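<goal> How does this chain fold?
<body> The protein record starts here
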Amino acid sequence: MTLPLFADEADVLPQITRGRKIEGRVSALLDARGDGFPSDRCQSLSLTFDGIEGDFHAGATRKSGGREPWYPRGTVIRNERQVSIVAEDELALVARTMGIDRIEPGWIGANMVIEGIPLLTMLPPRTQLFFEGGVTLRVDGENNPCRFAGDEIARNFPERDRTELALRFVSAAKRRRGVVAWVEKPGTIESGEAVTARIWEQWIYPAG
């Protein structure tokens, strides 16, 4: 199939899904102030354009890794992973799939737990999260699960084979591990705040 150059030459345009808004709430906040990515619960997060002040993932830029094979490892790129957001219901499902009783958000470096937004990990790129206190985050996309996060989970279950459990997380958490976002409008987020997800109009770009 050859794609038309202009919209008026297309026989059928992709199906378009209207934009919408979904209301949710911040049920927990966490930050990672040590040398690694695991995070601890806190009452509020102070955000600048560089991300969460003092957090392990703060910064306007970051170094590329395994998620960006199109760059040599260590290439300095824009940091679109300033904030990690998860949902308790999705983590509970991942835990059941892995055969464990729970996954604490801090074990996998989450900064925020949001409730009330169904299928949180499926929020499309470009979604805006408007927080009651004035902060706006822009969703970059799914936070793909990796073995490093799985290994942190496995540390808490010494009776299980550590390597096997870490690898199981990678498959069990696909499309359930939450999203990453960057700061569009800085400020302070408090635990318990209301949040509105603005999902933009969507379509699937046709195959060529």
